[in-house]
Amino acid sequence: MDSLAGHSQAVAGDESLRSTPAAVVANMQEAIVGKEDALRLVVCALLAGGHILLDDVPGVGKTLMAKTLAQSVSGIFKRVQFSPDLMPSDVTGINVYQQGDGQFRFVPGPIFANVLLADEINRASPRTQSCLLEAMEEGYVTVDGVGYPLPRPFLVVATQNPVEFHGTFPLPEAQIDRFAVSLTLGYPQPDQEARLLSGHWARLDGAPVEPVIELSHLAGWQEEVRGVSVAAELQQYIVRVLTATRTHPRIALGVSPRGGLIWQRLAQAWAFLAGRPFVVPDDLKAVAMPCLNHRLVLAGKSTRSLRSQVLLDILESVPVPV
Asked: 41, 221, 252, 281 - which has most CB atoms within 10 Å?
């Protein structure tokens, strides 16, 4: 499989590639140093119609990544800082009484965006967290019994700090399962950080990147992703891995059927990003860890690293179709 650098060089040198998924990845690299694999996964989640959970420390580019993604696809970006006193209506919107005509008028909240950054989502109360469930699953919100459709596409990028737990409310498994991928960006490599300090990124002026596609293109790509072929042998491989997570002695809660469907869709998006109309085993393996890791609940202590090791053992033990 070609490296991301190869994709980026191809986009830069070929006008015919400027309105492709690879162009979105390359465009995001104009603002974000390194993190090529993470950017590919983020774009794949968008193509697959999924949502993203960023479990990372402050200051590594989570907000910039979400904002740059929205700018690259000509989308509307909104950010909500979650806190204990945040109410569901602060996210979804509220009906406001108009004295002039004696009617209530719905004022949309920040959730009405193409890319919503739910910053530090685990600092809000479970009641406020739950207001995202309907939106993430159904694509609309209900206020006072009336449903309002959200813009299409709609992507939630939620963040949480893995080292600060005071005053937080851990996300329930039902909500965690609705995220297509869970990522950690991590700190940059020394050479990448040197580029940060010496390049145009050091200006910290927040200059937006130019869009490379229109939202209408993105809707078409999402439809094409659904048409990427997945052989029956690969679907059987998915089933065997899912079954292994449900019968493993160290796992208390395995991957749900929803997780299996999202895993397949992400693999289709990864293949589409590579320019292939069919999925190969490497596509499934490339997205397996960020797609499945956060869905596992281990018996006893359950950390990201422990889950990763158990999942890696399963992926190595289940034969891959040749």
From this structure: 41
Helices and strands (H, E) in the chain, number of each type: 13, 11
Name 239's Cβ contacts closer than 8 Å, sequence gap at least 6.
Answer: 260
Tell me the Ramachandran region of residue 102: left when phi exceeds 0, alpha when psi lies from -120 to 50, beta otherwise: left
Contacts of 85 (CB under 8 A, 6+ apart): none
Q: What is the pTM of this model?
A: 0.87
Dist CA 252 CA 10 (whole Å): 45
Q: What is the Cα Rg of the chain in Å?
A: 20
Assign a CATH topology to domain 228-322.
Helicase, Ruva Protein; domain 3 (1.10.8)
Confidence of residue 289 (pLDDT cuts 50, 70, 90): very high
d(CA 255, CA 314): 12
Please report, for the chain, the start and end positions of each structural domain, with discontinuous segments joined by +: 1-201+211-226, 228-322
Which DSSP category does 108 fall into?
Answer: E
Distance CA 135, CA 86 (A): 17
Q: Which residues contact 267 (CB under 8 A, 6 or more apart)?
A: 230, 234, 279, 283, 284, 286, 287
CB 307 within 8 A of CB 296: yes
Q: For 1-201+211-226, which CATH class?
A: alpha beta
